[in-house]
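>> Question from a student workshop board

For tomorrow's exercise we were told to take the sequence and the ligand below, predict the bound structure, and bring the output to class. My setup keeps failing. Could a helper post the expected result so I can at least see what it should look like? The ligand is zinc ion.
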Amino acid sequence: MSKLFLSIDFEDFSHDLGRDLGLWETRPLRIAALTRAYEAIERFLQAHGGARATFFCTGIIAEQAPELIARIAAEGHEIACHHHFHDCIDQETPEAFAANLQKALSALRAASGQPVTGFRAPKFRIPQSRSAHYTLLAKHVEYDSSYLCNSAEAARHFSASLAPPLKILPIFAARPRALAPKMRLGGTYLKLFSRATAARLIKASTQAGLAPHIYLHPYEFVADQSFALSRAELAPLGPARAAYWHARQSQWHKIGNRSLPQKLSALLQNHTLGGRLDENLTPLAL
Ligand SMILES: [Zn+2]
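>> Workshop helper replied:
Here is what the output should look like for this input. Compare the format with yours to find the bug.
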């Protein structure tokens, strides 16, 4: 059976959405909800052979809940970096990016007691046409998993353009059929796909020379809306924007969450979980 890789972008959605919307710069994280979501992920992995996985964690979690990062590392998972805050790197100067990256890496290394060698940009947004951000990244980590593409050739071409070199672990993104919108192998896309569409994308990834690799988030493994912002928290946005964001959150916290574990289990009937990314750089990195 071929391998299917699973990685988690480990972030507190409620904290990060409020920051994106300008409601706060930072505030206490929902550590109990993060812990419950981690435990749901761990139960899923244990029920499917006990493979270990890679958790791309925001630095703020390591700052506020170092014991949770230590536990994830102690249970055998790879701790990788998902920036300090969940900010869009394409909106940051190289200097701001460098400062946030170093802050995140030092918090994650201290909390996990592990080397932290992998990185994924929040929302996969990191400038790919300008080299400054990747040059900085290559000084601090061994691999990046922020590149979306539909062929191994595209990933190799991008990887070859980087100096200093950095290993690229791409995420497959393509149209499941002609004229359909481009979809990624993970997140909301995976929740909304039918099982057949997900299986088709996994097959297409393999045919394109890319080891199938699904990314998911803690809030997708729970269906209790524990990462949703309340109407009261959204109220400072004004009635119209608050109502919009309150409704919009269903996309992340409600629609398809209950059926996700069964869908993943069904996909795993034809695959085995691939394990930590840092232990599989040879099949994955281009
Ligand atoms: Zn993220």
